[in-house]
Amino acid sequence: MVGPLLASKYRRPRRRPGTVDRPRLTAALDGARHAAVTVVSAPAGFGKSTLLAAWLDTLPTDAAAVAWVSLDERDDDPARFWTYVLTAIRDATGVGEEALELLASSPSTPSSTESALVAALNDVGGTDRDLVLALDDLHLVTAPEVHEGLAFLLEHRPPQLHLVLATRVDPPLPLARRRATGELVELRAADLRFTAPESAAYLNGPMDLALSGDDVAALDTRTEGWIAALQLAALSMRGRDDVGAFIAGFAGDDRHVVDYLAEEVLGRLPDDVRDFLLETSVLERLSGPLCDAVTGRDGSRATLAALERANLFLVPLDDRRQWYRYHHLFADVLRTHLADERPEVVPELHSRASRWFAGVDDVPAAVDHALAGGHVDLAAELMERAMPVMRRERREAELLRWVRSVPDEVVRVRPVLGLAFVGALAQASVFDTVDRRLADVEHAVRPDGGPWPAHAPPGLVVVDEDGYRSVPAGLEVYRAALALRRTDLDAAAAHARDALALVPESDDLTRAAAGALGGLASWARGDLVGAESAYVAAVAGLQRAGFVADVLGCCIALGDIRRTLGRHRDEERLYRWALALTDPAAPVRGTADMHVALAGVLIARDELTAAGEHLDAARQLGEHRGLPQNPYRARVAAARLCAARGDRDTALAVLDEAEQAYDSDYSPEVEPVPAVRARLRIRRGELREAETWARERGLSPDDEPSYLREYEHLTLARLLLARRDDTATALLARLRAAAEQGARRGTVLEILVLQALAAQARGDVPAALDALRRALGLAEPEGLVRVVTDEGTPIATLLRALTKQDPAYPSARRLLAAGTGDVPAPSALVDPLSERELDVLRLLASDLDGPDIARELSVSLNTLRTHTKSIYAKLGVTSRRTAVRRAHDLGVLPLRR
Amino acid sequence: MSSSEHQRYVIRVRGRLAPRWASWFDGMALVPQDDGTTVIDGPVADQPALHGLLRTISDLGLPLVSLTATDEPTHPWRRTP
Questions:
Q1: Are A822 and A832 spatial neighbours (Cβ–Cβ below 8 Å)?
Q2: How confident is the model at residue A391 (pLDDT cuts 50, 70, 90)?
Q3: Which residues of B touch A337 (CB under 8 A)?
Q4: For residues A627 and A589, is the Cβ–Cβ distance under 8 A?
């Protein structure tokens, strides 16, 4: 997000009166309507913007929409740049609202920018008009991220989109190929220079100078067709009696054209106009009230209007004549004269401008003027006040500029500002001075390391009192972040804990940051209980602060953790709660991730149809609605679904894609894709491939268990079991002890299933049944199915044995009914019986007749018939007798004793 | 930063520039030459500073004629008053 937008920046300039028709150039620009990109590249004062405005006026509005952005230095920030561009596109076409929301809802990273651009390009591709996107003064933007975004836009442009770039410096875009294929239209300085006839048309037309052909030729030669110079020359000559002498003097002088002419123009102005021009030259843009404040006089608005009428290089920035700017070159001249003639007034002029901008809440402009006038303390005060909003709006590039503009000695006495600067640096991943800055802040507030003083000690400057109360917790948050960066997990967790203990009640964001950092550190250390509560704090803080996309990001981690803790129902509740936070009409990034995560829960529960629906929902939302991990997580979930449906070839192919798409997004890699694939290989009996994987990963049955390798070790245990290698037993025992120690009941459940299989392989049926019984005890309350049934025939045999021992064992029967993935057709029910149908089936196995059964179940005969028909269909039979026999064969019904 | 890290550059642009423009070329001397060019001469902190200088030259519409890095020390007497 970028704060308030200046409407004048995306209002396209209209063709101005007093300009010369340039048909040779507008004709050349007509090619822009068919080209991918048009570059108008020339130094200042060559009439680039004027030409584009004139050409755009000729476009038929029913065939082409025009989005225009006048760029300035502050747009050197991807978030701000794209907000302006997408706003201009939306205003021009009515589409792209979604892209803007995406941009505003996530931190500014290359991937989030791309997400927003994809959304915008999709929308533009669906419109039936061409869209000309004109970016004026593109040379003022130098951030590589912005150029990458432009290259992306160009690479993925729909045919409707035509980019028109006006710049003083050729943009670093891959244009050579487009030049070769004719998709690039170029106009350069040589094309833009006034030809002699154009000079004549200008000087004798709008400027009404009635010059001879020789005079025009002399001026054209002296200025080399440079339009800004011709304009200045024309202004110098207006009202002169001795035009011929002026031209001779000008032509015979070798001083810089602008220097010579500006002096001529300025020297002939009345003193009050000259003073006004010089004093207001410190402003990037001018309005009546602002100029009143800066010059200390009244009536600036009328003065500006008069200057515009006199064509004194004043460019209107809006249709209502509220904002203007000076022509770049003329502004440079004015500033030079101001600095030369009245250097002592410059700081005061900036100070007045700063106060005026602060008064209208344009803090960045106020800061710029405070700094330009050398008022560093004023700038620091403005920054400290604006910091919470600036950081909330993630104006990272602006913040970084601020950090670099304030000297250390000023920051040292301002602990709140000092800490905010650390935050800005951390956001931008510039860490070299962060340790020192943190120490400075702490030393300033409590030099002796005692308790934190409730009020700032004398000598320190604090403007933001709330910010001061958050300093102790804030210090610990950044120390946690630094510790995490050097992977000192213990220290990171400890600092995050301290931060949570110190954070003031009202500071949701600091609490959220402490929670997320502490959660991440605890998770990577294998302390899932600690990680769970830390992430819960993070999610709550982020939700209160209104950062929905960040809430969803934390929910991915929190869901993983709850699953490992064996709290699958809590995991599911979390995703559904998170989805309810998003507005279905404008889903934020992360919405897709929640659907993918829900699909995972549903697959584990063997609700494959519903799981497929959620994966479809995620796909329909598009990759741009996904956080960085989503591309790989969505594929892993899709592969699991394929495997659960028995299509293992596809599953394997999709897992290969998942590995390509892997992005840790700073999370620990607790279920590595290669290990997921190795499990599938083992299931397919492709043990050699799985062995290669285990060797490459350096896995051994003698390894000490560690949480981060738990998934791999369990995969190794599966491989050992498949090879009938008895070392699996000892490995599983150690893994189980570690998992129980860490309260990871989800992992314990999986280990128990494997232990059941290991015992069965040894021929120790009682031990196998014991392990299985414990596994079912964990699986049943969480509704889990596939962790058991995925093990196929061997587990089905055990389940049947269990139901024989204890016919009333509820979950074992249901699991058998659900079918086991590996067992070929006969025992697998494609469509499992419902609870009600099982009740009916049980009575069908008795001696009761139809009416008795209906009475027993308190249903009508018709309803009973419906149930019976459904049961027959599911079992693939046509009579009561065969249904009962088949149900016994399948283990759906216990055998009669 | 010590001035020893600076590199001295001699930049020549077309057109004579009045000395008041020296404030645009921080710490460098503007020396108008007889051939109608101006030499901008002095220490430049680093590459970004050099590119900033070139951009100023471009923004002022000054055609760039030549740019030379030199190890010779700056001659104070060549500065314009």
A1: no
A2: confident
A3: 20
A4: yes
Instruction: Write out the CATH class of domain A395-593.
Output: mainly alpha
Give Dmax (Cα) for chain B: 36
Q: Which two tokens stand for residue B38?
A: 């101006």
List the structure tokens of A812: 């074992």
Conformational region of residue A459, where left means phi above 0, alpha means psi within -120 to 50, and beta covers everything else: left
Determine whether the interchain pair B61/A339 forms a contact, defined as Cβ–Cβ distance below 8 Å.
no
> What CATH topology corresponds to A835-890?
Arc Repressor Mutant, subunit A (1.10.10)
Cβ-count burial A788-800 (b if 16+ within 10 Å, e if not): bbbbbebbbbbbb
d(C-alpha A504, C-alpha A486), whole Å = 28
ipTM: 0.78
A893 alpha carbon, distance to own chain's centre: 53
What's chain B's average pLDDT? 80
Bridge partner residues of B11 (DSSP): B40, B67
**Is residue A174 predicted with pLDDT exceeding 90?**
no
Contacts of B36 in chain A (CB under 8 A): 254
- Say if residue B4's pLDDT is above 60: no
Do A340 and B16 lie within an 8 Å CB cutoff? no
Cβ within 8 Å of B, A 160-179 = 168-169
Chain A, window 255-274: residues with a beta carbon less than 8 angstroms from a chain B beta carbon: 255-259, 263
Closest CB to B18: pick one of A229, A259, A339: A259
Per-residue pLDDT tens digits for A656-709: 999 999 988 878 999 999 999 999 999 989 999 999 999 999 999 999 999 999
Which chain B residues are Cβ-neighbours of A254 within 8 angstroms? 15-16, 36
Q: Which residues of A631-670 are buried (b: 16+ CB within 10 A; e: fewer)?
A: bbbbbbbbbbbbbbeeebeebbebbebbeebbeeeebbeb
B21 contacts in A (CB within 8 Å)? Answer: 259, 336
Tokens of B34: 């007889």
Chain center to CA of A525: 27
Q: Which residues from A are below 8 Å from B60, CB to CB?
A: 44, 256, 258, 329, 332
Written as six digits, the tokens of A730 are 């000892």
CB < 8 Å to B65, chain A: none
Task: Check: CB of residue A746 under 8 Å from CB of residue A568.
Answer: yes
Fold of A7-192: Rossmann fold (3.40.50)
Minimal Cα distance from B35: which residue of A? A254
Residue A254 has its nearest CB partner, among B16, B20, B23, at: B16
Q: What's the token pair of residue A514?
A: 């402490």
* Shortest Cα distance, chain B CAs vs residue A337, angstroms: 7
CA distance A611 to A623: 18
Nearest to A258 by CA among A283, A236, A280: A236
Average pLDDT estimate for A517-534: 94
Residue among A443, A449, A424, A444 at smallest CA distance from A434: A424
* Confidence band for A577, pLDDT divided at 50, 70 and 90: very high
Locus of tokens 């009640």? A505
Q: What is the distance between the alpha carbons of residues A562 and A545, in angstroms, rounded to a whole number? A: 24
Residues in chain B: 81
CB contact under 8 A, B62 and A337: no
Of A131, A145, A6, A16, residue with least CA distance to A72: A6
Nearest chain A residue (CA) to B59: A44
Cα gap B49→A64, rounded to integer Å: 42
From A214's Cα to the closest Cα of chain B, the distance in A is 23
Q: Is residue A324 within a helix (H) or strand (E), and if so which, with residue range? A: strand A324-326
Please give, rounded to a whole number of angstroms, the shortest distance from the CA of B17 to a CA of chain A. Answer: 6
The answer for residues whose C-beta is within 8 angstroms of residue A58's C-beta and 6 or more apart is A26
Q: Which of A255, A332, A337 lies nearest to residue B60, judging by beta carbons?
A: A332
